[in-house]
Amino acid sequence: xxxDSTSSSPALPSKALPSKLQRTLFxxxxxxxxxxxxxxxxxxxTYTILIFWSFxxxxxxxxxxxxxxxxxxxxxxxxxxxxxxxxxxSSHAWSYIFFDLGNDTFRPYLNSLIIAFASTVLAVLFGSxxxxxxxxxxxxxxxxxxxxxxxxxxxxxxSTIAAGIPWQIGVAVGAAxxxxxxxxxxxxxxxxxxxxxxxxxxxxxxxxxxxxxxxPIYVMFQQVGLLDTHFALIIVYMAVNLPxxxxxxxxxxxxxxxxxxxxxxxxxxxxxxxxxxxxxxxAKPGLAATFLLVLILSWNEYLLALFLSTADAQTMPLLxxxxxxxxxxxxxxxxxxxxxMILPVIAMTGLLQRxxxxxxxxxxxxx
Amino acid sequence: MQxxxxxIRKSFGAIEVVKGLDLDVGDGEFLVLLxxxxxxxTTALRMIAGLETASxxxxxxxxxxxxxxxxxxxxxxxxFQSYALYPHMTVEDNIGYPLYLRKVDKEERARAIREVAGxxxxxxxxxRYPRQLSGGQRQRVALARAMIRRPSLxxxxxxxxxxxxxxxxxxxxxxxxxxxELGVTTIYVTHDQIEAMTLAHRVAIMKAGELQQLAPPRExxxxxxxxxxxxxxxxxxxxFIEGKIAGGSFRAEGAALSCPxxxxxxxxxxxxxxxxxxxxxxxxxxxxxxxxxxxxxxNETLVTCQVGESLVIVKMDKDYDEKIGTAxxxxxxxxxxxxxxxxxxxxxxxxxx
Lengths: 367, 353
What we know:
The complex is a heterodimer of chains A (367) and B (353).
Chain A: H1 3-7, H2 25-30, H3 40-67, H4 72-76, H5 92-100, H6 103-136, H7 143-161, H8 167-183, H9 195-207, H10 210-223, H11 230-254, H12 258-267, H13 271-282, H14 284-300, H15 303-308, H16 316-322, H17 331-352
Chain B: E1 3-12, E2 15-25, E3 30-34, H1 41-49, E4 56-61, E5 64-65, E6 76-79, H2 91-101, H3 106-119, H4 135-147, E7 153-157, H5 165-182, E8 185-190, H6 193-199, E9 202-207, E10 210-215, H7 217-222, H8 227-232, E11 239-246, E12 249-252, E13 255-258, E14 265-272, E15 277-280, E16 287-296, E17 300-307, E18 310-317, E19 327-332, E20 338-341, E21 347-348
Parallel strand pairs in B: 3-8, 3-9, 6-7, 7-8
Antiparallel strand pairs in B: 1-2, 1-4, 4-5, 9-10, 11-12, 11-14, 12-13, 14-20, 15-19, 16-17, 16-19, 17-18, 20-21
């Protein structure tokens, strides 16, 4: 596997290339060759393997599609694959989902679209702002200031709940105390955190499995009366996905040369304008990839939606799962739902994939 | 626009990279900050631009104190070493970006873009992207973008260093012409002494964060303030011979010459340029040595001679030839010789002037 294994062979001529320059056994076997330089036999072999693998990957989708046209009898009879040959296709499942269920299909579908897209747009927008700030601005929050903030927050919460102090007064006093602390005592403390600590803290919010937080979140939205609304799900999805956006986008922003931003600054642009007209266009590949990932995560989310929505804000994953509820798994209905559910994501992928290209920065700073 | 720096300092952590820089740049002047890498010249430039904040000292543009003013309010244009072109914009949009930010209307902007693009010969490339341009063309886009809004001050951070030698010479000429035509005060950072000598009205030589000499190029060359400046400027570099001054004459191994007016000094470095020396026959001249190498460079011959421990380069005309190892004498052609204190490097001057 390593370069040394080839050079140590005694059969090598004395004037062989230095071992560093030779292709290793590993490279000779696995390094891809240009398709044009392959011999016909290898070409056939390559395409056979590729076609086989495409079949493996695409077969579940095909099965989904044919199942949506099967009668229950065809499903329970054992596997049949080919419409018109193995079985007679029927559109009963499609007409049930679109006409019998009608609004009960369209409402969750629309809910899913609204919630997934809105939360993704917000998460990518705010997340990339945070990521940009973390790449370009050096933060030095003092450990004691963070500690004091938590302490004062706890005191405010306790005094509001236990001592019955109106929360407006509690918050005002707490904020005043914290500002006072920042202006006076905080100056004596030296230990501080850096950008990487902030980033880790943001990512740590995602390390916790959502199931741990779902009950408190449920109670919170119950208290403010926002259960089963779009707003609740959008906010929660945004919060859950923010860490991923920050984490991914930070790496993309770090690749943009600082010179460009300094140049724009001297040209007269404000920081926000630099972000919008210089940084964001150059981060398009990263934005597109992040947008897709977050969209898919929101689109498929089940657990939080299960707790936070009942009817009005119900999303597609819940509807799909419901087909397995009372009368056993209704594979045919489920298949129809899944087919229409994957369409928007496929459309977005097709739309965004042209942005996911490399080489956008060529010409920026190279001589 | 005049620029004044008053005791500017900058520290990164414990390291002070600019140590109290005082500088006055006149209106319309072309000032070059010259020094080896790491001497703080780029940091000084970035402080004038506002991209770095000064640790101490004040910066004035005209009569306005801009030390704490944001870069975008300083009315400064800067050309970066890397050009810093916006890769997602066409040449036209790149050049027009400063005007776009100032909300200049579209027609006026297009007219201004065509005007500056004409000046730097880019009219045929307005629709292209930076990635489709050569190094020299990118350089000109960066220049045009700096010129378009007629700033009160140009800052240039080694703008020619990424170009090949031929193009660099051409752009140098263009740059000098444009600066003269626009009459905008320019501060230019470089480590290339040829650029400094050819472009500058005045050159400020820096070393380790301190200003060594601030003078017109001719004066820098003819009257260096200290050993560092004398050694940094000139190609081939100035010859240095260590010795001592006693009784009105300089003595070193293989060298003896009178230097009236200089008081006695223990350790002295004598500096003399290659073109101020002549190789003469053995026994004549102020220095004796043996030829060490003879290099024909085209229009002249560089004769390196060993004088005592040191090598002395003499510029002779292109027909000169001699065997290596011949004993020769070296004479001072004109009285251009400088003496420096060997320890501090300060210039020693005769007492009567």
